[in-house]
Amino acid sequence: MQGRVLIVEDDSVLLDILVETFEGRGYSVHPSKSGTEALDVMETLGFDAVITDLVMDGEDGLAVLEKAREKNPEAAAVLLTGYGDMTSALRALRLSADDYILKPISAQVLADRVEEILTAREKRRREILAGLSLICCTRCQKIHDQEGPWRPVEEFLENRTGARVVSALCPECMKEGSQKPGGK
After folding, report:
1. Which of 31, 46, 51, 67 has its CA 20 to 30 A from that of 58?
2. Is residue 184 domain-resident?
3. In the chain, count of helices (H) and strands (E)?
């Protein structure tokens, strides 16, 4: 699975094409036919990418983009429009849109662009994690990254990466434990 994508488009034919394209590339896709519907969906679901039309009845694409940034600043955000103008382009930039694309656009080209954005974000995230200077207590094994409090390794990793850490024994430690007197 590539990730979760919210596609907001009031043109049902284009929406179907985009959904089919992204699902064909392994994404979990949630289609919305209006900005209002998308805002409701974002209350309960998180997304790795949000692709939204600019001009729609009710809430417009800029409102969707603003909410997407509030919910997940790391999500890719692409604004599509058939009515591009400087004012909306500047507002999109202020809201940190990753791209502002004029219609018509090929669904394949759009999917390629979203993948480029997601790949670049992942690369940046890995570089940041690799560049962290961590201090680990030799006694309690808590970590301190010079930005926050001392935290257990599992909590630190979960907060930084979103990964759920589960404690277990590796095969070597399991074997060592079974060889010790009283080991299980």
Report:
1. 46
2. no
3. 7, 7
